[in-house]
Design a protein that fits this description.
This protein is of the alpha/beta class and 216 residues long. It has one domain: Vaccinia Virus protein VP39 (Rossmann fold, 3-Layer(aba) Sandwich), CATH 3.40.50. Helix content is 27%, strand content 25%. The strands form two sheets. A seven-stranded mixed β-sheet has the order 5-4-3-6-7-9-8, sandwiched between helices. A two-stranded antiparallel ribbon has the order 1-2. Helix 1 (37-45) runs parallel beside helix 3 (73-81) and helix 5 packs parallel to helix 6. The longest helix has 12 residues, at 173-184. The protein is globular. The structure holds S-adenosylmethionine (SAM). Residues 30-32, 35-36, 38-39, 68-71, 89-90, 93, 118-119, 135-137, 139-140, 143, 146 line the site of S-adenosylmethionine. InterPro entries: Methyltransf_16, SAM-dependent_MTases_sf. This is Protein-lysine methyltransferase METTL21D. It holds the Pfam family Methyltransf_16.
Length: 216
């Protein structure tokens, strides 16, 4: 079972305007059932002036999809900012994501829904969004190629892909990360968001926010 909804505990995240997101996490379940640090870094980046600049000055009416959303915190934050967002993960996570949408619905200014999207399999069910969001998804050996395939299929030339990940040095993680970027760079220009353009509090030397733009 990927998530057990029997025992939940709440992670609070304070938005810059003082609103508090209340994110339910599961005591028992796979890695996605808690909020990861890369998700917090990406959440805070979505409130930055630089993100607004990347969105040509407005986020209202823009469509976002979050991949591997886990609890859904990043997509919920995007919807609070005014984007219309579909948060996705494996089918077992839809219940947790839906609960978190319901819990935070009043703070959302854009439309938001939770949906299943298995990388490499379900891409055809979705249209290309304006913004594609990923936090800590470069993690699974068996999913590197399906993940790159989904990012490629969901992106058009105008899609802004924001991929935030924690650089890990243990086990096979460095190899996975190299393989992921090797594949991504075949079709995308890749750029790193400098630390000074990130949130002064929610940032870290080993958590990177990468921007991918599909080459024409
Ligand atoms: C490390 S967790 C990160 C969760 C969340 N983005 C965060 O940062 O808090 C990675 C997520 O990717 C999802 N995932 C793994 N393999 C997947 C696949 N093949 N298709 C879709 N989602 C997948 C997991 O279920 C999990 O929620």
């Amino acid at each position: 079972m990927a998530t057990s909804m029997d025992k939940l505990f709440v992670r609070e995240y304070e938005r810059k305007n003082g609103d508090i997101l209340r994110i339910n996490q599961c005591e028992i379940g796979d890695v996605g059932c808690v909020v990861w640090d890369a998700a917090l870094v990406l959440c805070s980046f979505l409130e930055s002036a630089y993100f607004l600049e990347l969105c040509d000055g407005t986020v209202y009416g823009k469509r976002a999809i979050e991949l591997g959303a886990g609890t859904g915190i990043v997509g919920i934050q995007a919807a609070c900012q005014g984007l219309d967002c579909i948060i996705t993960d494996l089918p077992d996570f839809v219940q947790l994501m839906s609960l978190n949408i319901e819990t935070n619905q009043k703070l959302c200014n854009g439309d938001i829904k939770a949906s299943a999207l298995q990388w490499g399999k379900d891409d055809h069910l979705y249209h290309s969004p304006d913004v594609l969001l990923l936090a800590d998804c470069i993690y699974y050996e068996e999913s590197i190629e399906p993940l790159v395939s989904t990012i490629s299929k969901l992106s058009n030339n105008d899609t802004l892909v924001l991929c935030c990940y924690e650089e890990r040095v243990t086990d096979n993680k460095p190899v996975l990360q190299s393989r992921f970027f090797e594949l991504i760079k075949k079709n995308f220009d890749v750029q790193k968001v400098p630390l000074e353009k990130q949130d002064p509090f929610y940032h870290s030397d080993d958590i990177h926010i990468m921007i991918f733009k599909k080459r024409r």
